[in-house]
Amino acid sequence: QSVLTQPPSASGTPGQRVTISCSGSSSNIESHTINWYQQLPGTAPKLLLYTNNQRPSGVPDRFSGSKSGTSASLAINGLQSEDGADYYCAAWDDSLTGWVFGGGTKLTVL
Amino acid sequence: EVQLVEAGGGLVQPGRSLRLSCAASGFTFGDHVMHWVRQAPGKGLEWVSAISWNSNNIGYADSVKGRFSISRDNAENSLYLQMNSLRPEDTALYYCAKDMVAIDIGGGAIDFWGQGTLVIVSS
């Protein structure tokens, strides 16, 4: 069981807005910034958002992030077929003195 | 172009040891925290270990503490993971990963991943 809790699956149709939640605690999300990763099938993860809502160069502005208290969320606007992937949240945890990941959310574009 | 190339994976019996390596190029290796992250077959990501630019700040997941040891050679642009007393639950694809920051192993973000090397622990 992961320290950060994500829904195992999410889905949407092209053009829709989809959100993926990530729930943690005072020792991780509440105290530290959160990062989001996208993992396309059969490939290595890719950084999608860092410091809660910052996009690395090359990541479309359709992807956005927010954080409040012990929870965070990733939003994808204008869903596209190529967005079908696994999404992971990650944060530093003070109690574990290590990085923790969410269990991952498999996004299906219908 | 940033490149991280892992090597050293393979099939190993429980209780034995294995040493993974990661060759880095395309960036100033000595300016970044480096990580090992693993992914068991069909499962999610699990952080394993991280090391600061000068090796003064090191961290391990509880699941590997006391068994695994991370190290780096900035002159050789290389990262290592010495894995001892391997268990079947250590079976995973091990990714070498680069952080955005240099000093604080918990203060940045992994911004680039290698393709991974597969470790299978089985008798």
Number of helices of chain B: 0
Number of strands of chain A: 9
Q: What does the largest sheet of chain B look like?
A: 7 strands, mixed
Name the average pLDDT of chain A: 97
Instruction: Describe the oligomeric state of these chains in a short phrase.
Output: heterodimer
Strand content of chain B: over 45%
> What is the approximate shape of chain B?
globular
**Biggest interface between protein chains, with counts per chain?**
A-B, 26 and 23 residues
Mean pLDDT of chain B: 97
Secondary structure layout plus pairing:
The complex is a heterodimer of chains A (110) and B (123).
Chain A: E1 9-12, E2 18-23, E3 34-39, E4 46-49, E5 63-68, E6 71-76, E7 85-93, E8 98-101, E9 105-109
Parallel strand pairs in A: 1-9
Antiparallel strand pairs in A: 2-6, 3-4, 3-7, 5-6, 7-8, 7-9
Chain B: E1 3-7, E2 10-12, E3 18-25, E4 34-39, E5 45-51, E6 58-60, E7 68-73, E8 78-83, E9 92-99, E10 110-113, E11 117-121
Parallel strand pairs in B: 2-11
Antiparallel strand pairs in B: 1-3, 3-8, 4-5, 4-9, 5-6, 7-8, 9-10, 9-11
Task: Report what the structure shows.
The complex is a heterodimer of chains A (110) and B (123). Chain A has 110 residues and is an all-beta fold. Chain A has strands at 9-12, 18-23, 34-39, 46-49, 63-68, 71-76, 85-93, 98-101, 105-109. In chain A, strands 1, 3, 4, 7, 8 and 9 form a 6-stranded mixed beta sheet that branches. A 3-stranded antiparallel beta sheet of chain A has the order 2-6-5, with no helix packed on it. In chain A, a hairpin with a 6-residue loop joins strand 3 and strand 4. Helices cover 0% and strands 50% of the residues of chain B. Chain B has strands at residues 3-7, 10-12, 18-25, 34-39, 45-51, 58-60, 68-73, 78-83, 92-99, 110-113, 117-121. In chain B, strands 2, 4, 5, 6, 9, 10 and 11 form a 7-stranded mixed beta sheet that branches. In chain B, strand 5 and strand 6 form a beta hairpin. Classes of the chains: A mainly beta (110), B mainly beta (123). Chains A and B meet through strand 3, strand 7 and strand 8 of A and strand 5 and strand 10 of B.
